[in-house]
Amino acid sequence: MRQTKRRAQTYSLYDRTGMEASLARMAEKGWLLERIGPFFWTYRRIEPRRLTFSVCYFPKASQFDPEPSEEQEAFYDLCAHTGWTLAASSAQLQVFYNEREDPVPIDTDPAEEVATIHRAMKRSLIPSQLGLLAVGVLNAALLVRRFLNDPIQVLAMSASLLGGLCWIILFVLIGTELFAYFRWHAGAVRAAQRGEFYATRTGRKVQAAALVLLTGALVYELASTLLYGKRIQVLWTLLLLLLYLPGAFLAVNGIKRLMKDLKASAGVSRAATLAGSFALLFVLLGALSAGMVFALNRGWLEENQTVYEYQGRTYTLTQDPLPLALDDLLEGDFSRYTRTWRGERSPLLEQRTGHQWPLGPRDFFPEPVYLDYDVVLVKVPALYGLCREAKLHERDDWGDNPAWSGYAFAPADPAPWGAEEAYQWLPGDGADNEADNHQFLLFYPDRIVDISMQWDQPPTPAQMAAVGEKLGRGELP
What we know:
With 477 residues, the chain is of the alpha+beta class. The chain has 11 helices and 15 strands.
């Protein structure tokens, strides 16, 4: 039979009423609080009994204090004289229990209690929440800016959606927390003026729902990366989860514990923890990044590769499976062409990019040809119009480049492509040169195809039909 239990603490820092009731229920089940951690509270097994708990606050205390101050020790002695035993403490939070049936309360003055809680919250809860809110506003602004510049990329990247969801959840959690606190504080001040204590109330249900949603999104992102990501994405994700995040936790808490063991002052401990953690995490991230670069340079993380040698030089070709290849469109030997298939997927969109280019000495490619295409698969029909406008105006700023000055998309016949709409990238009246390739923007019921076929002749009806069959209606690998 286990003698300890760890349990997540979901009450707000100021919610003494909720914490006291929860601790009393745990004692009746045979578990007494023993230690307060950053994420979990640890309980030890006891004989089930009814205990009274009191959650108090000591505003001057800090998580960096090497040990309780003399003033804090005097407070503990005063509580002990009235039967209150310290169960656990963490910085400003102090938890006591009493075995008497009707103990004398630790806090007897409502006004003083409210003032003490407010001083503690002004040093902990309120600054931390406002700091997170400022970071959230900055990141949300950056995400909105990225969305305005390239909505397809943002909507197709599950990481971007997850980041946006995280900041939305952050706003909900912070808003709920601060609103609930200031609402309670206003009510507590009015009650104290009448000589009454005021129970704390928090938005736990909203917070619990937000955390469940966030957990589900994180699980989806992790599963999607492990199932569909490239080898480098999977490895980097695992390194962050298994090494970097645990390393960050161990660095911060390890240095803090070391400073306490050395009896360093709170100021020295705080500075050492911040500086030491930053240095250790910088070194760890640098080591992980260097390891990834080392592996990439040796091709250990690349997939679907072949090599060939010519005149003492080795050429490495990527051979990703493509839904449409030059072999489907032209006659010729494309064995020395590199083929790449990259992209992002999310519950809303998929954006995939395919390339097939020659790689090797010029004498192997007397008339080189190139194939490039981008496929946007729209999973939510309501987003199709947004994606259509984004693709049509994606090249609006290309006019700043003299090579493309005067070019624009002109309507083309969609029938040979089997598409609903078709546009070709063509020079206008003010263009100084003519296109040496053939670029088309094709719209199908659930996807958009942006394709560039770089060879001398315009695409034939058979080639257009192949594009429609492979990219416009076919399954994407």
